[in-house]
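Title: Comparing notes on inverse folding

I've been comparing how different people in this forum approach sequence design from structure. To keep things fair, I'm posting one structure and asking everyone to reply with a full sequence. Here's the target:
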């Protein structure tokens, strides 16, 4: 399936410049759709191989959970909730908003994601996996 470059960056939690760099180095093929947007064939073997190679350095999900402190684990669960703001998390944890940002930054680094959306994506994947394991 063909998808826009920015959409793929969002889906795979990559910075768009990372994809553009691979395009410039001729590692990925890109074309324009009828709307003039740059698109990539997501199902192509070259794209899948590039994503796997690029993501190889990221921390496995089980590993990052073991690295989190008790406070970071609580913050991780709260950050996974898209309905909560940083201020709401600070209120629930009885800490300052700046401390929430500090914990979030540490959690993102341990997880190998760039931000809260990446954290939420990983959290959802874990929930799906645990749901599948409970059913079997």
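Reply #1:
Here's my take.
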């Amino acid at each position: 399936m063909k998808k826009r470059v920015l959409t793929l960056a969002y889906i795979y939690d990559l910075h768009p410049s990372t994809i553009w760099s691979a395009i410039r180095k001729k590692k990925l093929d890109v074309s324009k759709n009828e709307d003039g947007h740059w698109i990539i064939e997501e199902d192509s073997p070259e794209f899948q191989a590039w994503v796997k190679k690029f993501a190889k350095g990221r921390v496995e999900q089980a590993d990052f959970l073991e690295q989190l402190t008790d406070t970071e684990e609580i913050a991780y669960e709260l950050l996974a909730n898209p309905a909560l703001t940083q201020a709401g998390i600070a209120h629930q944890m009885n800490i300052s908003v700046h401390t929430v940002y500090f914990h979030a930054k540490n959690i993102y680094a341990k997880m190998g994601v760039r931000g809260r959306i990446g954290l939420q994506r990983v959290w959802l994947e874990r929930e799906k996996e645990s749901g599948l394991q409970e059913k079997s």
